[in-house]
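As promised in the previous annual report, we have extended the structural survey to additional targets. Below is the entry for Nucleoside-binding protein.
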Amino acid sequence: MISTKSLSRRGFLNMGAAAGAGLLLPKTGLITPAHAAGPLAPVAEEDAHIAFGHTGPTSDEGWTWAHDQGMKAVAAAFPKLRTSYVESIPYSADATRIYRQFVADDACMVFATSNYGDFLYDVAKRAPDVAFYECDGRNPLDNLGTYYVSHWYPSYVAGIAAGAMSPSGKLGYVASFPVPSVYSGTNAFLMGARTVNPEATLQTIVINSWFDPQAATQAGTALIDNGCDVLFGIMDEAGYLQVAEERGAKAVMWNTDLRRYGPNAYISSIIVDFKAFYVEQVRRRLVGEWTPTYDLLPFGGGVDVDAWGETVPADVAAKADAVKASIMDGSFNPFSGEIKDSKGNVKVAKGETMSEQELYHWNWSIEGVSGLDA
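The corresponding structure token record, generated without further manual editing, is:
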């Protein structure tokens, strides 16, 4: 079922011309150019249809909810256009059918809020006058850009707090799939933890889903049973946080502030906010400036660390906040060598620093992370 909704908007850092007075927009890190023959033709606001394809339900209070807030920001910024969405799109031929239906319904811009690969690419190639964006995409086309968030930086900062608050040094991670976003998240989290506990380790359990509360709860339970006292993950709901609350452990979450599900367990969350990014891309599409880009929303401008939980000691919060400030002002980059993989091989030599491209495509585990590499 396709639904239509609208609501509020919010932004960050002024990037120049934008729809509506005072709209603020995040800086974005262009990591790989996507080439196009030229900007797509402008579209009158009253004729525009902006469609969103989601991997989960908009009620998940996580990843899909965050993108839904972005759609509502677009509807508020441009009240004459039409927005629509389909939630919980499967990774199958049904996805292709749904994205084709968006085009058939005269969508001039389509956002796939997760990586749908060939299910989306085939549709985009057949609709050259439609602007497409794929979140966490890997294959830009003349009319398809990709975007994601630099989540490895806040994951590192949250890892500092996790390492300080873990009596055992045994951390656990509930993983969706062994994909780059999981490798970068686990690695960054453990690297942060090891700045305060050099012997810390991170055990992962892969549940093969982005949204499966029952499986996430089971994985969280298994990790605590195995001795982990701080949990992290990339799930779209609060399952493992509730387990941590019940078992007296701690947890770091993803996407949104979920502390009410485990106020004593909650350390923080990796917070994502796509509202300003979506509003700017739609503005560019309407005025005829849109060409595909490959953007990473930066730390503090689309992805951040949530306010610390009520049980995080003040000195731990202060230490993590100081590192966050040094990352954001450019005086410190945590992803400098020497960095070894889980087999002991040097992957980043001393004196070298991983590029944003390498961080985005990270596909190997560091020493101390188990459960992802064969």
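The longest strand covers residues 266-272. The first helix runs from residue 63 to 77. These points will be discussed at the next consortium meeting with the crystallography subgroup.
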